[in-house]
Amino acid sequence: MPIARAAKRATARLGAVVLAGALLAACGSSDSSDSSDSAGGKVTLNVDLFGSFGFKEAGLYEEYQKLNPNITIKQSDTQDEADYWKSLQTRLAGGGGLADVQGVEVGRIASVTQQQSDKFQDLKEFGADKLKGEFAEAKWSAATTKDGKILGLGTDVGPEAMCYRTDLFKQAGLPTDREELAKKWATWDGYLELGKEYKKKAPAKSAWLDSVGSLYGIMIGQEKERYYDASGELIYDKNPAVKEAWDTSVEAAEAGLSAKLDQWSPQWNQAFSAGSFATIPCPAWMLGYVKGQAGDAGKGKWDIAKLPGGAGNWGGSYLSIPRAAKHKEEAYKLIEWLTAPEQQAKVFQKQGNFPSSTGAIETIAGAKDEYFSGAPIGQIFGDAAKESPVQVLGVHDQNVMQQITNALSEVERKGVSSDKAWGTAKKGVDNVIG
Protein backbone atom coordinates (compact mmCIF):
# COMPACT_ATOMS: atom_id res chain seq x y z
CA MET A 1 0.00 0.00 0.00
CA PRO A 2 1.86 -0.20 -0.19
CA ILE A 3 1.89 2.53 -0.33
CA ALA A 4 -0.68 2.26 2.47
CA ARG A 5 -3.22 -0.36 2.64
CA ALA A 6 -6.90 0.12 3.34
CA ALA A 7 -10.23 -1.25 4.30
CA LYS A 8 -12.13 -3.36 1.78
CA ARG A 9 -15.07 -5.77 1.65
CA ALA A 10 -17.41 -7.85 -0.52
CA THR A 11 -20.91 -9.26 -0.21
CA ALA A 12 -20.80 -13.00 0.35
CA ARG A 13 -19.91 -14.44 3.73
CA LEU A 14 -17.83 -17.44 4.53
CA GLY A 15 -18.28 -19.69 7.51
CA ALA A 16 -15.60 -19.56 10.15
CA VAL A 17 -13.05 -22.25 9.40
CA VAL A 18 -10.06 -22.99 11.61
CA LEU A 19 -6.84 -24.64 10.56
CA ALA A 20 -6.12 -26.81 13.57
CA GLY A 21 -2.60 -27.53 12.41
CA ALA A 22 -1.80 -23.83 12.17
CA LEU A 23 -2.99 -23.31 15.70
CA LEU A 24 -1.39 -26.33 17.33
CA ALA A 25 1.80 -27.08 15.42
CA ALA A 26 5.04 -25.68 16.71
CA CYS A 27 7.89 -26.73 14.49
CA GLY A 28 10.49 -24.63 16.18
CA SER A 29 11.12 -22.88 19.43
CA SER A 30 12.24 -19.50 20.61
CA ASP A 31 13.93 -18.81 23.90
CA SER A 32 11.58 -20.18 26.56
CA SER A 33 12.41 -17.30 28.84
CA ASP A 34 10.63 -15.02 26.37
CA SER A 35 7.59 -17.19 25.73
CA SER A 36 5.25 -15.66 28.26
CA ASP A 37 4.43 -12.34 29.82
CA SER A 38 3.52 -13.78 33.19
CA ALA A 39 3.78 -16.90 35.30
CA GLY A 40 0.36 -17.94 34.01
CA GLY A 41 1.66 -18.32 30.46
CA LYS A 42 -0.18 -15.31 29.06
CA VAL A 43 1.44 -13.88 25.95
CA THR A 44 0.89 -10.48 24.36
CA LEU A 45 1.79 -10.43 20.67
CA ASN A 46 2.57 -7.02 19.24
CA VAL A 47 1.73 -6.65 15.56
CA ASP A 48 3.08 -3.57 13.78
CA LEU A 49 1.56 -2.76 10.37
CA PHE A 50 1.04 0.07 7.90
CA GLY A 51 -2.28 1.17 6.48
CA SER A 52 -4.91 -1.49 7.07
CA PHE A 53 -4.29 -5.17 6.45
CA GLY A 54 -7.91 -5.90 7.35
CA PHE A 55 -7.25 -8.41 10.13
CA LYS A 56 -8.90 -6.35 12.83
CA GLU A 57 -11.77 -5.26 10.57
CA ALA A 58 -12.50 -8.86 9.58
CA GLY A 59 -12.58 -9.92 13.25
CA LEU A 60 -9.60 -12.25 12.92
CA TYR A 61 -7.77 -11.07 16.02
CA GLU A 62 -10.88 -11.57 18.12
CA GLU A 63 -11.42 -15.02 16.64
CA TYR A 64 -7.82 -16.06 17.22
CA GLN A 65 -7.87 -14.88 20.82
CA LYS A 66 -11.00 -16.96 21.48
CA LEU A 67 -9.29 -19.99 20.01
CA ASN A 68 -6.14 -19.22 22.03
CA PRO A 69 -7.16 -17.71 25.39
CA ASN A 70 -3.53 -17.30 26.45
CA ILE A 71 -2.88 -14.90 23.57
CA THR A 72 -3.60 -11.16 23.48
CA ILE A 73 -2.95 -9.32 20.22
CA LYS A 74 -2.09 -5.63 20.15
CA GLN A 75 -1.81 -3.92 16.77
CA SER A 76 -0.03 -0.66 16.06
CA ASP A 77 -0.64 1.01 12.73
CA THR A 78 1.08 3.68 10.65
CA GLN A 79 -0.99 4.97 7.75
CA ASP A 80 1.87 5.99 5.48
CA GLU A 81 4.09 3.08 4.45
CA ALA A 82 7.13 5.29 3.85
CA ASP A 83 6.98 6.57 7.44
CA TYR A 84 6.49 3.02 8.69
CA TRP A 85 9.49 1.69 6.78
CA LYS A 86 11.75 4.49 7.95
CA SER A 87 10.82 3.79 11.57
CA LEU A 88 11.29 0.05 11.08
CA GLN A 89 14.78 0.59 9.68
CA THR A 90 15.74 2.64 12.72
CA ARG A 91 14.51 -0.04 15.08
CA LEU A 92 16.16 -2.86 13.13
CA ALA A 93 19.47 -1.02 13.28
CA GLY A 94 19.15 -0.50 17.03
CA GLY A 95 17.68 -3.90 17.78
CA GLY A 96 15.01 -2.51 20.11
CA GLY A 97 11.37 -1.54 19.94
CA LEU A 98 10.49 -4.22 17.39
CA ALA A 99 7.13 -5.95 17.36
CA ASP A 100 6.65 -9.70 17.29
CA VAL A 101 5.17 -9.36 13.81
CA GLN A 102 6.18 -6.70 11.30
CA GLY A 103 4.41 -6.02 8.00
CA VAL A 104 6.56 -5.69 4.87
CA GLU A 105 5.28 -4.14 1.64
CA VAL A 106 6.07 -6.02 -1.55
CA GLY A 107 8.24 -3.14 -2.78
CA ARG A 108 10.49 -3.67 0.25
CA ILE A 109 10.69 -7.45 0.30
CA ALA A 110 13.81 -7.57 -1.92
CA SER A 111 15.54 -5.33 0.59
CA VAL A 112 14.64 -7.81 3.33
CA THR A 113 15.80 -10.91 1.42
CA GLN A 114 18.93 -9.39 -0.12
CA GLN A 115 20.17 -6.94 2.51
CA GLN A 116 18.51 -7.67 5.85
CA SER A 117 18.12 -11.43 6.06
CA ASP A 118 20.12 -11.41 9.29
CA LYS A 119 17.50 -9.15 10.88
CA PHE A 120 14.52 -11.43 10.26
CA GLN A 121 13.61 -14.91 11.45
CA ASP A 122 13.88 -17.79 8.99
CA LEU A 123 10.33 -19.14 9.13
CA LYS A 124 11.51 -22.49 7.83
CA GLU A 125 12.63 -23.20 11.38
CA PHE A 126 8.93 -23.33 12.31
CA GLY A 127 7.93 -25.48 9.34
CA ALA A 128 6.92 -22.75 6.88
CA ASP A 129 8.46 -24.67 3.96
CA LYS A 130 5.47 -27.04 4.15
CA LEU A 131 3.19 -24.15 3.10
CA LYS A 132 4.85 -23.42 -0.25
CA GLY A 133 2.12 -25.01 -2.35
CA GLU A 134 -0.57 -22.86 -0.72
CA PHE A 135 0.71 -19.58 -2.19
CA ALA A 136 1.12 -18.18 -5.67
CA GLU A 137 4.67 -18.98 -6.81
CA ALA A 138 5.63 -15.35 -7.40
CA LYS A 139 4.42 -14.37 -3.95
CA TRP A 140 6.31 -17.19 -2.26
CA SER A 141 9.60 -16.84 -4.14
CA ALA A 142 9.86 -13.09 -3.53
CA ALA A 143 10.18 -13.68 0.23
CA THR A 144 12.72 -16.50 -0.12
CA THR A 145 16.47 -15.84 -0.08
CA LYS A 146 18.91 -17.43 -2.51
CA ASP A 147 20.05 -19.82 0.21
CA GLY A 148 16.46 -20.88 0.96
CA LYS A 149 15.49 -18.81 4.00
CA ILE A 150 11.79 -17.93 4.19
CA LEU A 151 11.47 -14.42 5.59
CA GLY A 152 7.76 -13.72 5.27
CA LEU A 153 4.33 -15.21 4.61
CA GLY A 154 2.22 -13.47 1.99
CA THR A 155 -1.01 -11.71 2.83
CA ASP A 156 -2.59 -10.07 -0.21
CA VAL A 157 -1.64 -9.16 -3.76
CA GLY A 158 -2.72 -6.05 -5.65
CA PRO A 159 -4.44 -6.92 -8.96
CA GLU A 160 -5.54 -3.70 -10.59
CA ALA A 161 -8.79 -2.28 -11.96
CA MET A 162 -10.37 1.16 -12.41
CA CYS A 163 -12.91 2.49 -9.91
CA TYR A 164 -15.24 5.23 -11.10
CA ARG A 165 -18.18 7.37 -10.00
CA THR A 166 -21.25 6.52 -12.07
CA ASP A 167 -23.16 9.58 -10.85
CA LEU A 168 -20.41 11.95 -12.00
CA PHE A 169 -20.12 10.12 -15.32
CA LYS A 170 -23.85 10.60 -15.90
CA GLN A 171 -23.63 14.31 -15.16
CA ALA A 172 -20.83 14.64 -17.70
CA GLY A 173 -22.74 12.66 -20.33
CA LEU A 174 -20.42 9.64 -20.31
CA PRO A 175 -21.50 6.00 -20.40
CA THR A 176 -21.54 4.16 -17.08
CA ASP A 177 -21.65 0.49 -18.13
CA ARG A 178 -18.44 -1.21 -17.00
CA GLU A 179 -18.17 -3.36 -20.13
CA GLU A 180 -18.64 -0.39 -22.46
CA LEU A 181 -16.09 1.64 -20.56
CA ALA A 182 -13.57 -1.20 -20.65
CA LYS A 183 -13.77 -1.06 -24.44
CA LYS A 184 -13.54 2.74 -24.62
CA TRP A 185 -10.47 2.84 -22.39
CA ALA A 186 -8.85 -0.38 -23.58
CA THR A 187 -5.66 1.69 -23.92
CA TRP A 188 -4.26 4.48 -21.74
CA ASP A 189 -4.65 6.86 -24.68
CA GLY A 190 -8.34 5.98 -24.67
CA TYR A 191 -8.50 6.64 -20.95
CA LEU A 192 -7.01 10.12 -21.36
CA GLU A 193 -9.31 10.91 -24.29
CA LEU A 194 -12.34 9.99 -22.21
CA GLY A 195 -10.93 12.16 -19.44
CA LYS A 196 -10.75 15.12 -21.80
CA GLU A 197 -14.40 14.54 -22.71
CA TYR A 198 -15.26 14.44 -19.02
CA LYS A 199 -13.46 17.71 -18.39
CA LYS A 200 -15.67 19.52 -20.92
CA LYS A 201 -18.86 18.79 -18.97
CA ALA A 202 -17.58 17.83 -15.56
CA PRO A 203 -19.49 18.88 -12.43
CA ALA A 204 -17.96 21.84 -10.63
CA LYS A 205 -14.71 21.12 -8.77
CA SER A 206 -14.48 17.59 -10.13
CA ALA A 207 -11.42 16.25 -11.98
CA TRP A 208 -10.98 13.08 -14.01
CA LEU A 209 -8.56 11.38 -11.60
CA ASP A 210 -7.11 11.96 -8.16
CA SER A 211 -3.43 12.42 -9.04
CA VAL A 212 -0.95 11.62 -11.77
CA GLY A 213 1.09 9.79 -9.17
CA SER A 214 -1.62 7.17 -8.84
CA LEU A 215 -1.82 6.95 -12.64
CA TYR A 216 1.90 6.34 -12.88
CA GLY A 217 1.80 3.77 -10.09
CA ILE A 218 -0.95 1.73 -11.69
CA MET A 219 0.71 1.80 -15.11
CA ILE A 220 4.10 0.70 -13.86
CA GLY A 221 2.37 -2.15 -12.06
CA GLN A 222 1.56 -3.61 -15.48
CA GLU A 223 5.22 -4.22 -16.26
CA LYS A 224 7.45 -7.21 -15.55
CA GLU A 225 10.62 -5.13 -15.39
CA ARG A 226 10.38 -1.67 -13.90
CA TYR A 227 13.35 -0.34 -12.00
CA TYR A 228 15.63 -3.38 -11.99
CA ASP A 229 16.24 -6.20 -14.44
CA ALA A 230 16.48 -9.86 -13.49
CA SER A 231 20.23 -9.56 -12.91
CA GLY A 232 19.69 -6.85 -10.29
CA GLU A 233 20.89 -3.97 -12.47
CA LEU A 234 19.15 -0.63 -11.98
CA ILE A 235 17.44 0.14 -15.31
CA TYR A 236 14.69 2.63 -14.52
CA ASP A 237 16.35 5.47 -16.46
CA LYS A 238 16.53 3.45 -19.69
CA ASN A 239 13.43 1.31 -19.38
CA PRO A 240 10.88 2.25 -22.10
CA ALA A 241 8.04 1.07 -19.85
CA VAL A 242 8.99 3.66 -17.22
CA LYS A 243 9.22 6.35 -19.90
CA GLU A 244 5.78 5.48 -21.24
CA ALA A 245 4.21 5.62 -17.78
CA TRP A 246 6.00 8.91 -17.09
CA ASP A 247 4.95 10.48 -20.42
CA THR A 248 1.31 9.42 -19.99
CA SER A 249 1.24 10.85 -16.47
CA VAL A 250 2.81 14.12 -17.66
CA GLU A 251 0.20 14.35 -20.42
CA ALA A 252 -2.59 13.92 -17.88
CA ALA A 253 -1.07 16.65 -15.70
CA GLU A 254 -0.61 19.10 -18.56
CA ALA A 255 -4.17 18.44 -19.78
CA GLY A 256 -5.52 19.41 -16.37
CA LEU A 257 -7.12 16.04 -15.72
CA SER A 258 -5.90 15.67 -12.16
CA ALA A 259 -7.32 16.87 -8.85
CA LYS A 260 -3.67 17.30 -7.69
CA LEU A 261 -4.15 15.39 -4.46
CA ASP A 262 -1.48 13.59 -2.47
CA GLN A 263 -2.60 10.06 -1.82
CA TRP A 264 -3.28 9.30 1.87
CA SER A 265 -3.43 13.02 2.73
CA PRO A 266 -6.43 14.44 4.65
CA GLN A 267 -7.45 16.37 1.53
CA TRP A 268 -7.39 13.18 -0.54
CA ASN A 269 -9.48 11.39 2.06
CA GLN A 270 -12.10 14.14 2.02
CA ALA A 271 -12.21 14.10 -1.78
CA PHE A 272 -13.85 10.67 -1.92
CA SER A 273 -17.06 11.97 -0.44
CA ALA A 274 -16.82 15.41 -2.06
CA GLY A 275 -16.76 14.03 -5.61
CA SER A 276 -13.45 15.72 -6.37
CA PHE A 277 -12.49 13.06 -8.92
CA ALA A 278 -14.43 10.69 -11.15
CA THR A 279 -11.95 7.83 -11.51
CA ILE A 280 -9.20 6.32 -9.42
CA PRO A 281 -6.91 3.47 -10.40
CA CYS A 282 -7.62 0.87 -7.76
CA PRO A 283 -5.76 -2.26 -6.84
CA ALA A 284 -7.99 -4.63 -4.90
CA TRP A 285 -6.81 -3.34 -1.53
CA MET A 286 -8.08 0.13 -2.44
CA LEU A 287 -11.76 -0.88 -2.38
CA GLY A 288 -12.15 -0.77 1.36
CA TYR A 289 -10.37 2.54 1.55
CA VAL A 290 -12.87 3.99 -0.92
CA LYS A 291 -15.71 2.69 1.23
CA GLY A 292 -14.21 4.00 4.41
CA GLN A 293 -13.73 7.51 3.02
CA ALA A 294 -16.84 7.80 0.83
CA GLY A 295 -19.05 6.32 3.55
CA ASP A 296 -22.59 5.02 3.29
CA ALA A 297 -23.57 7.92 1.04
CA GLY A 298 -21.25 6.55 -1.64
CA LYS A 299 -22.90 3.13 -1.88
CA GLY A 300 -24.14 2.49 -5.41
CA LYS A 301 -22.37 5.56 -6.80
CA TRP A 302 -19.17 3.66 -7.49
CA ASP A 303 -18.44 0.89 -9.98
CA ILE A 304 -15.38 -1.03 -11.18
CA ALA A 305 -14.18 -1.76 -14.70
CA LYS A 306 -11.25 -3.54 -16.28
CA LEU A 307 -8.04 -1.55 -16.28
CA PRO A 308 -6.77 0.18 -19.44
CA GLY A 309 -3.67 -1.31 -21.00
CA GLY A 310 -3.90 -4.84 -19.58
CA ALA A 311 -3.53 -6.54 -16.23
CA GLY A 312 -1.13 -5.44 -13.54
CA ASN A 313 -0.32 -5.61 -9.86
CA TRP A 314 0.24 -2.78 -7.40
CA GLY A 315 1.09 -3.65 -3.86
CA GLY A 316 0.61 -6.60 -1.61
CA SER A 317 2.36 -7.42 1.63
CA TYR A 318 4.02 -9.96 3.90
CA LEU A 319 4.09 -10.75 7.58
CA SER A 320 7.59 -11.21 8.96
CA ILE A 321 9.12 -11.86 12.36
CA PRO A 322 12.22 -9.92 13.45
CA ARG A 323 15.01 -12.00 14.97
CA ALA A 324 14.79 -9.66 17.98
CA ALA A 325 11.10 -10.47 18.54
CA LYS A 326 10.21 -11.65 22.06
CA HIS A 327 7.70 -14.34 21.11
CA LYS A 328 8.81 -15.84 17.81
CA GLU A 329 7.11 -19.22 18.13
CA GLU A 330 3.75 -17.73 19.12
CA ALA A 331 4.14 -15.06 16.43
CA TYR A 332 4.68 -17.73 13.80
CA LYS A 333 1.54 -19.60 14.80
CA LEU A 334 -0.39 -16.35 14.44
CA ILE A 335 0.93 -15.38 11.02
CA GLU A 336 0.48 -18.91 9.68
CA TRP A 337 -3.17 -18.74 10.75
CA LEU A 338 -3.72 -15.20 9.46
CA THR A 339 -2.35 -16.08 6.01
CA ALA A 340 -4.17 -19.43 5.71
CA PRO A 341 -6.73 -19.69 2.86
CA GLU A 342 -9.76 -19.45 5.13
CA GLN A 343 -8.57 -16.27 6.79
CA GLN A 344 -7.43 -14.66 3.54
CA ALA A 345 -10.89 -15.31 2.10
CA LYS A 346 -12.53 -13.70 5.15
CA VAL A 347 -10.41 -10.58 4.79
CA PHE A 348 -11.38 -10.36 1.12
CA GLN A 349 -15.06 -10.75 1.91
CA LYS A 350 -14.90 -8.01 4.52
CA GLN A 351 -12.20 -5.71 3.17
CA GLY A 352 -11.45 -6.55 -0.46
CA ASN A 353 -7.75 -7.44 -0.03
CA PHE A 354 -7.17 -9.96 -2.81
CA PRO A 355 -5.65 -13.23 -1.52
CA SER A 356 -2.20 -14.56 -2.34
CA SER A 357 -3.39 -18.00 -1.24
CA THR A 358 -4.39 -20.15 -4.21
CA GLY A 359 -7.10 -21.86 -2.18
CA ALA A 360 -8.65 -18.56 -1.15
CA ILE A 361 -8.61 -17.27 -4.74
CA GLU A 362 -10.76 -20.22 -5.81
CA THR A 363 -13.15 -19.63 -2.91
CA ILE A 364 -13.91 -15.99 -3.75
CA ALA A 365 -14.14 -16.29 -7.55
CA GLY A 366 -17.86 -15.51 -7.65
CA ALA A 367 -17.87 -12.61 -5.18
CA LYS A 368 -19.69 -9.37 -5.99
CA ASP A 369 -19.69 -6.05 -4.17
CA GLU A 370 -22.98 -4.20 -3.78
CA TYR A 371 -21.24 -1.03 -2.65
CA PHE A 372 -19.63 -0.91 -6.09
CA SER A 373 -22.94 -1.39 -7.92
CA GLY A 374 -22.75 -5.16 -7.75
CA ALA A 375 -19.40 -5.32 -9.55
CA PRO A 376 -18.12 -8.90 -9.94
CA ILE A 377 -14.95 -8.23 -7.99
CA GLY A 378 -13.98 -11.87 -7.69
CA GLN A 379 -13.91 -12.14 -11.48
CA ILE A 380 -12.41 -8.71 -12.25
CA PHE A 381 -9.56 -8.98 -9.79
CA GLY A 382 -9.20 -12.73 -10.24
CA ASP A 383 -8.67 -12.32 -13.98
CA ALA A 384 -6.22 -9.50 -13.35
CA ALA A 385 -4.29 -11.63 -10.86
CA LYS A 386 -4.01 -14.48 -13.34
CA GLU A 387 -2.92 -12.22 -16.21
CA SER A 388 -0.52 -9.95 -14.28
CA PRO A 389 3.18 -10.35 -15.08
CA VAL A 390 5.51 -11.82 -12.49
CA GLN A 391 7.37 -8.67 -11.52
CA VAL A 392 11.10 -8.31 -11.03
CA LEU A 393 11.60 -6.73 -7.61
CA GLY A 394 14.68 -4.74 -6.71
CA VAL A 395 16.25 -3.66 -3.46
CA HIS A 396 15.20 -0.02 -3.82
CA ASP A 397 11.97 -0.42 -5.79
CA GLN A 398 9.92 1.62 -3.37
CA ASN A 399 12.51 4.37 -3.09
CA VAL A 400 12.75 4.77 -6.87
CA MET A 401 8.97 4.83 -7.11
CA GLN A 402 8.74 7.54 -4.47
CA GLN A 403 11.28 9.80 -6.17
CA ILE A 404 9.50 9.51 -9.51
CA THR A 405 6.06 10.24 -8.10
CA ASN A 406 7.48 13.18 -6.13
CA ALA A 407 8.84 14.62 -9.36
CA LEU A 408 5.52 14.07 -11.14
CA SER A 409 3.88 16.10 -8.40
CA GLU A 410 6.12 19.02 -9.41
CA VAL A 411 4.76 18.78 -12.96
CA GLU A 412 1.21 18.47 -11.71
CA ARG A 413 1.22 21.28 -9.18
CA LYS A 414 3.90 23.73 -10.21
CA GLY A 415 3.97 23.32 -13.98
CA VAL A 416 7.59 22.17 -13.97
CA SER A 417 8.66 20.84 -17.38
CA SER A 418 8.86 17.12 -17.94
CA ASP A 419 12.61 17.20 -18.60
CA LYS A 420 13.38 19.25 -15.51
CA ALA A 421 11.19 17.06 -13.31
CA TRP A 422 12.80 13.89 -14.66
CA GLY A 423 16.20 15.34 -13.82
CA THR A 424 14.96 15.95 -10.29
CA ALA A 425 13.74 12.36 -10.07
CA LYS A 426 17.13 11.01 -11.16
CA LYS A 427 18.97 13.15 -8.60
CA GLY A 428 16.58 11.95 -5.94
CA VAL A 429 17.17 8.33 -6.83
CA ASP A 430 20.96 8.85 -6.77
CA ASN A 431 20.73 10.44 -3.34
CA VAL A 432 18.51 7.74 -1.87
CA ILE A 433 20.42 4.79 -3.30
CA GLY A 434 23.82 6.36 -2.77
Automatic annotation (TrEMBL):
Signal peptide: 1-25
PROSITE patterns for this protein: PROKAR_LIPOPROTEIN (PS51257)
Keyword terms: Signal
Annotated InterPro entries: Bact_solute-bd_prot1, SBP
SUPFAM superfamilies membership: Periplasmic binding protein-like II (SSF53850)
PANTHER family for the chain: ARABINOSE-BINDING PROTEIN-RELATED (PTHR43649), SUGAR BINDING SECRETED PROTEIN (PTHR43649:SF32)
Protein name: ABC transporter, substrate-binding protein (Cluster 1, maltose/g3p/polyamine/iron)
